Amino acid sequence: MFKKLLLSFCVLCLLTGAVAAKDLPAKWDIETDVLVVGFGAAGSAAASAAHDAGADVLIIEKLPFPGGNTALCGGAVYAAGTDIQKQLGYNDTPELMQAYQALIKPGLNRPEFIKLVSERSNEALEWIIANGAKIPAKEGVPGITMGGFERNFDQVTPAMPRSHWVEGGGKGLFQAFFNAVSKRKIKTSMSTTAERLIRDPASDRIVGVQATKNKKTIYIKANKAVVLTTGGFSQNIEMLTAYAPSGNNYKGAKGSSGVVGDGIKMAQEVGADLWAMHETLESMGILGAPNAYFTPFMEYTLIVNNKGLRFISEGAWTEPISEETLRQPDGEAFLIFDATLRARSEFDTTLGSVVPTKFLVEANSLEELAVKFGIPGEAFLKTVADYNGYCESGVDPLGKTRAELFALTKAPFYGIKSNPLPVMTTGGLLTDTGARVLNSFKEPIPGLYAAGEVTGGKLVGYPGCGTAVTDATIFGLIAGENAAAEKAWK
Ligand SMILES: Cc1cc2nc3c(=O)[nH]c(=O)nc-3n(C[C@H](O)[C@H](O)[C@H](O)COP(=O)(O)OP(=O)(O)OC[C@H]3O[C@@H](n4cnc5c(N)ncnc54)[C@H](O)[C@@H]3O)c2cc1C
Fold it and tell me: What are the residue boundaries of the FAD-dependent oxidoreductase 2 FAD-binding domain, all occurrences included (predicted)?
């Protein structure tokens, strides 16, 4: 009797197409060797490497267009020992990069990854350049700058400018990844959302995905492997609230609407372990200008809260400034500078290039600026007077260096209202250095790879601008190569 019931249930499932995700479907709609889920930096690199290793490859992307956060990012790639550094007289090496990165959140960033990324960062940069990215050999943006906390650790390991900013920002950067895919004529399918991973019950191997295209459920078979390159979860407020301590306090988010943690959820269902899920990178940004990303220059400004008080060294870089701003009244801050700073050439290529003009508030006096922002004038004027004193003496009680101190004296004065927003999540799937997704016993889940922001434990504390794209490129290439080397399932 039970057997009969089971049989009727199976027949019903086949007739209605209601196959549970982890079961094998009655029929596959599409077949490939390596299925790459997500068309950003990591997906493009993985697909290219798998193709070069001889595999048939398909990339699926849930949005109608490719790019993900890669296309919206600042366009920095972090690398050491590069030709551009050499041309500008910097004697940087992978060992120095490794020594620096090892100082950022040790324990949460796994040492074997820091070593591998440092050793291969120049290769990643050269791969991106070979695919069409342009980076001028000069200091600045585009060009090279310090990327994060390098100056803070200068006594331990020499500070080197490793952030290589591509011409055209994220758009220019993603174009190179897109070129890599299109010149290989790799198959792609837009508006195709992977929903669940499919596992072969006999071998326990991941053999494809259940996806949605044009509101229809389809089954895609991956003979060799599935590579998850779906990005992080910075656009998923529910996941941020569940995992990240600041999750509830954000007033918005930056980046692509596609990065909502799909890859993490799919892999969790098949037993994947997670790492450092509480870690996010916040950046000072602007509500209403989701892609405004504060690049170098912030350190030259004066930052106050809405009580007109200074609360952190502006040279502390975007992540600590954002974290501290979240603790300020209404979680907001104001970046203040004067006509002299505004006239510096770096302004136009850094902050000035990302802040839409309507968010740049101008006033003929500091009093007027305080009124425009609704900041108590008396407190604000005292803060500026004290700050100008520190600029004169070169000694700042909050620890800003002499090179970053510029007195605010020349009208007009400028200000930008800013809120910390999540830029990326640095926790995610636990993988090994071969980009295999690991289960909670640290064993690889057969047939499943992951690369880029969907993975965790490599960029915690965000060592500097460009480290995410470097990581996505290196592990995308590794994932693609290893996925293509898998023995075909059937
Ligand atoms: C404003 C901003 C500035 C930044 N600046 C920099 C910088 O200068 N340098 C740097 O290194 N990093 C920067 N970052 C971080 C960096 O952009 C990302 O970490 C990196 O680009 C991630 O690459 P990825 O390939 O892993 O994911 P993404 O480029 O985000 O691509 C993931 C893709 O997967 C798709 N996808 C998701 N779920 C599914 C699904 N279920 N099915 C199919 N497709 C799916 C998404 O739609 C998306 O297109 C910045 C981020 C932001 C938001």
Answer: 33-468
Taking only the tens place, the pLDDT of each residue in 43-99 is 999 999 999 999 999 999 999 999 999 999 989 999 999 999 999 999 999 999 999
* C-beta of residue 324 within 8 angstroms of C-beta of residue 289: no
Q: Where are the beta strands (DSSP E) in 240-326?
A: 274-275, 280-285, 302-304
Cα–Cα dist 194/191, whole Å: 10
Nearest to 282 by CA among 240, 310, 229, 315: 240
CA of 395 to the centre of ligand 1 (A): 40
Q: How far away, in angstroms, is 65 Cα from ligand 1 center?
A: 13
Pocket test for ligand 1, best of 37, 70, 264 (most atoms within 8 A of CB): 70
Q: Is the Cβ atom of 375 under 6 angstroms away from ligand 1?
A: no
Percent of the chain with pLDDT over 70: 94
Instruction: Give long-range contacts, CB 8 A cutoff, 24+ apart: 370-377.
Output: 370/308, 372/415, 373/306, 373/334, 373/415, 373/417, 374/306, 375/304, 375/306, 375/307, 375/308, 375/334, 376/307, 376/308, 377/308
Report how far ligand 1's centroid is from the alpha carbon of 418 (Å): 23
Q: Is any ligand 1 atom within 6 A of the Cβ of residue 417?
A: no
Going from the N-terminus, what domains does the chain have, and what CATH number goes with each?
20-279+426-490 (3.50.50.60), 284-422 (3.90.700.10)
Instruction: Please work out whether the CB of residue 256 comes within 6 Å of at least one atom of ligand 1.
Output: yes
| Ligand 1 in reach of 61 Cβ (< 6 A) | yes
Q: Which two tokens stand for residue 441?
A: 């016993």
Closest atom, ligand 1, to C-alpha of 293: 1
Q: What is the DSSP letter of 149?
A: S
Q: Is the CB of 40 under 6 A from ligand 1?
A: yes
Please, which residues bridge with residue 284 across strands?
420
Q: Are 135 and 484 within 8 A, CB to CB?
A: no
What ipTM was estimated for this complex? 0.99
